[in-house]
Each structure stands twice: as C-alpha cells, then as structure tokens.
Design brief:
Layout (H helix, E strand, L loop, with lengths): L5 E10 L2 E11 L4 E6 L5 H8 L7 E6 L2 E2 L5 H7 E4 L11 H6 L14 H13 L15 H14 L4 E5 L7 H18 L2 E5 L3 H7 L2 E6 L2 E6 L1 H4 L2 H8 L3 E5 L6 E5 L2 H14 L1
Parallel strand pairs: 3-8, 3-9, 6-7, 7-8
Antiparallel strand pairs: 1-2, 1-4, 4-5, 9-10, 11-12
Amino acid sequence: MTIHSLTASRLSAGYSDVEILHALDLAVPPGKITAVVGANACGKSTLLRTMSRLISPSQGHVLLDGKSIHRVPSRELARTLGLLPQSPIAPEGITVADLVSRGRHPHQSLFSRWTRKDDEAVESALTATKTVELAERPVDELSGGQRQRVWIAMALAQQTDVLLLDEPTTFLDINHQVEVLDLLTDLNHARGTTVVMVLHDLNLAARYADYLVAIAEGRVHVAGAPEDVLTEENVRQVFGLESRVITDPTSGRPIMLPIGRHRMAEGQDLKENRS
C-alpha cells in the first residue's frame, strides 16, 4: 500500500456553460476517511467526478502526488485511484461475477493472464459485500440495494490506494448502510486506503469520517474534524436548517438533530404555556 496525496487547487468545473465549482481548494488527508456533505446541487458529485478525471476543469488543477492527473497514464491512474460514480450503468445481461471482475482490468496488460491473485481479489470483494450468492445472477435482475453492493464489490476488487465513492449508501436500508461504512472503515484500517465519499446522512458522515468537508455553492464552506464541522451554525449556513447538535454517547462524535417548523412552534407554545 502506497499513501498518495490528492489535492484540488483553485478548481473550477461544471457542465457546458454552467460552472458548478468555483476556485475550490481541497487537500484530501492521505490514509484517512473523508466525507463530503452539502445541500443538493452544491457541487459534491462534480467535485468527485473532476478529481477522478471524468470532468476536465475549466480552471485550476487536480494533483495526484503533486502531478496533474491529466498527465498520469490512464492504466496507472486506474491502478491508483478508483471511482464509484452515482447511478452507474452495467452492460445489459452481464452477471455479477463478470461485473466485479472488471475491477481487475487495470491490473491486466496486453501479455498478462488472469491470475490466482485476481481470483482472490474478486472473491474477497464478493465476500466483503455479501454478494457471493448473487455471483451468477444478471445484474439487471437485482434490486437497487443488491446492485449497489455489487458496484461497491467491483470498486473493492480494483484494490486502489485511493477510493472515491459518490453516495455509496444509495438504495441501501440502514442495516446495509452501516455494513458498507463499516466495510470501508475496515478497508481503511487494514490497507490504509484513502477513502473520499459523498454522503447525505450528516450523522453517518460524522460518525465514520476522520475529516468532513462541507460544500456550499461550489466552494468549501468549512473542512476539518467532525466536531469542528458539524455545528449548529454550519448546519444553518450550509443547509438552511435549524438544528441541535449533541454528542453521541456511543461514538463520542457529534449528532445533528433537525428542528422542523412545527416542532419549533410546539416548543415555543410549550414554553409560553409554562410561563
């Protein structure tokens, strides 16, 4: 395992004539788990797609070990940095085993053959994601949650030192969400894999990440340790939401409790009645 640095410097990017990211700076902590959070359409997915070279920046740079990722040969980049995009599409009729095996393609060359190491990587990925029993089934016959676990298995089979995941818990019930995040934590602890993931659940992000990045309007609003980022003021500024933040008695990490308009009104009525 090699620890790599991944940074964005004055990064601007978007789609057609619409700029989504605006001169964004971010240094991903190597060997740690980073969670990117923010309101819808703030630029979270665009950031991951640009940092993985799927989108070319209009300005600025993405640097891998101090070198522009656009200067890194494609196969070398794929052996170092893996991406699980949002809502990936599998080829029609492909089986689970075949899809997960595609994670090994960056490790193949024109003259190399499939090896026992490749078999072990695929088997390990299927086992870790509890998809072994699905191996021979076509991917397009699976439920949304099953498909998501299979895509995660493919990303794990790639065995990169840096792994970017855009909403990896999408379509999963809470039990499987926790299993996936536990799995990524195990991967980080065992191999030192640098993990960057977009999450919608602020409390899961704060619980599992070493480093939180809150994006607002295409810029990094605040970044740091979960207890420094997940505050009532930051939740208000980033999400436009009133909340209370307390300490999780189990993990010691912050927990955000949203306050809806009706609950705020009920609380005010109760306070007035008591007075």
